[in-house]
């Protein structure tokens, strides 16, 4: 897995994130122009970085996503990060997710080599205001940028849509041009800002690639959780409500069955194999 190469592709993207954090930093017009150029150059080479995932999606472009869900084993509800999350969210964790290997590849790259952002903190020390800077790893942002870049390489016909916006009230998708492309409102950084009344799942898997990602064409809306980002019941319920049809029978059941939870790395392809290898290694050490 060429994680360092993926990180190099996105090395300048953290500055774009800071454009929309005006209270933390500001960029000149020249900085923005240079950043836009850098991102464009990186997108042109991302096919080499995630070649395996992109080639797999290219071969499968005409096949329905539900076909690939049949061979997915679901997530690992036997693994819990804290509390009873594996019990409370068991249904979402075990949901069949098409293209789990490709999704896992992208998420593991983001986990290993995330974009890091300097963030300023102000605190009072002995009556004086002191400013310190910490570094924050944007794992979800890195994953979304990679999914978006793959979609662009595939001419917006990838089955995986990163953070597409939906109107919270009508559940209508905010479509770009072509209609299979999520509409973005950021001039440099694609995901921010977003409309006030919108809701954006971390990742949406569409059933038919050549059609718009309206909710009736969504096979799965996936909430992705990296380490340290805890699962919230309200988030899951918001996505269930978004995916619930406005009319018809079994509306609640349909809405619930479209929502999935993927914890990185616990629910990624290959996690159990690594876990077994680690257990075997520990047993060997005990015997020796």
From TrEMBL:
Residues 40-67 form a coiled coil. The keyword Coiled coil applies. Keywords: Coiled coil. This is VRR-NUC domain-containing protein. It comes from Pseudomonas cremoris.
């Amino acid at each position: 897995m060429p994680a360092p190469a993926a990180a190099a592709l996105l090395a300048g993207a953290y500055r774009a994130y800071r454009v929309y954090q005006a209270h933390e930093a500001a960029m000149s017009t020249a900085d923005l122009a240079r950043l836009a150029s850098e991102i464009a150059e990186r997108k042109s080479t991302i096919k080499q970085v995630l070649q395996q995932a992109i080639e797999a999606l290219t071969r499968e472009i005409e096949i329905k996503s539900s076909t690939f869900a049949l061979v997915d084993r679901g997530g690992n509800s036997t693994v819990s990060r804290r509390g009873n999350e594996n019990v409370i969210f068991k249904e979402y964790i075990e949901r069949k997710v098409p293209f789990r290997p490709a999704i896992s590849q992208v998420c593991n790259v983001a986990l290993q080599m995330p974009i890091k952002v300097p963030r300023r903190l102000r605190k009072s020390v002995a009556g004086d205001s002191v400013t310190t800077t910490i570094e924050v790893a944007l794992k979800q942002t890195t994953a979304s940028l990679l999914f978006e870049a793959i979609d662009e390489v595939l001419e917006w016909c990838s089955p995986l849509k990163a953070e597409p916006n939906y109107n919270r009230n009508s559940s209508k998708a905010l479509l770009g041009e072509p209609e299979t492309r999520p509409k973005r409102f950021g001039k440099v950084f694609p995901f921010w800002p977003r409309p006030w009344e919108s809701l954006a799942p971390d990742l949406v898997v569409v059933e038919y690639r050549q059609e718009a990602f309206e909710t009736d064409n969504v096979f799965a809306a996936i909430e992705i959780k990296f380490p340290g980002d805890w699962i919230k019941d309200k988030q899951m319920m918001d996505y269930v409500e978004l995916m619930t049809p406005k009319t018809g029978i079994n509306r609640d059941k349909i809405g619930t069955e479209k929502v999935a939870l993927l914890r990185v790395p616990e629910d990624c392809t290959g996690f159990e194999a690594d876990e077994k290898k680690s257990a075997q290694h520990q047993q060997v050490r005990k015997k020796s």
